Amino acid sequence: MSRIPDLRGKVCLVAGASRGVGRGLARGLGEAGATVIVTARSSETGPRTEGRPETIEDTARVVDAAGGEGHHYLCDHTSERAVDTLVHWALRRFGRIDVAVSSVWGGNEGYDGERYGDGAAWGTPFWRRSAEPLSDFFGSGPYPALLLARAVAPAMVSAGGGLLAFVSFDTEPAYLGDIFYDLTKATTNRLAFACAQELAPHGVTALGLSPGFVRTERAIDIGHADRATESPLYAGRALAALAADPAIAARAGRILHAGDLAAEYGFTDADGTQPARFQIHAEET
């Protein structure tokens, strides 16, 4: 990495940070010296999503090791009351929230690399599958993102600034290969655009962040590690670069690719490489 941004003194909240991209975001902010509140449902002291080993306490320690200050908070991001309580706690504890990012995503829970929990294979034509799982996709992606946005927006508007980011996947270049996945990501992208329109007059920037095929713990477990283009830290360094950019308002409402941002800001992935923007190819859909 050519230059680590300076986010010392900044308070950041990463929702969905127990593993995967969320943990990479928290680590990237920690490298830049930020205070990072990491939240999710999986904790050492309580239930863990699908019984997985990763927890928010682990992520808070990752932030500390990277050079930041990590704090964990157990939160069900599908509950409006729980998210409101989280944000009120953060504001009482730290006085403000400079950066908030939603990386909450439960759409792949039960997915084994070929089939979802209801038995439907990835990419099954919409007329050959039940529509019922769609509510779970929306409820574990765009809806938690909206809950976080509405909870943090008043404090950011009052402060006259802040960055609100939504982790998604750009749907503009191509169909993503599965109707539920595509609709969910497209909705999250539109949420970023809509929030930007309402927040920009108040000095707050909302945008979407589109990583590539990320080498998450789940991707490794289901045998997709060889298809991955980047580590979770790549998106984290992209977010840190955006958070430190004084001209960030010019990017409001856009869906930004980690690979494009790396070329622009000069950061690299954990292994020193600089993967280009991830492209969806016909054979992958």
Task: Please describe what this structure looks like.
With 285 residues, the protein is an alpha/beta fold. The chain has one domain: 3-Layer(aba) Sandwich (Rossmann fold), CATH 3.40.50.720. It has nine helices and seven strands; from the N terminus they run βαβαβαβααβαβααβα. It has helices at 20-31, 56-66, 80-94, 133-139, 142-159, 179-199, 217-221, 232-243, 258-265; strands at 11-15, 35-40, 69-74, 99-102, 162-167, 204-210, 255-257. The protein has a seven-stranded parallel sheet, sandwiched between helices. Helix 2 (56-66) links the parallel strand 2 and strand 3. Helix 1 packs across helix 8 (232-243). The model has no long low-confidence stretch (mean pLDDT 93).
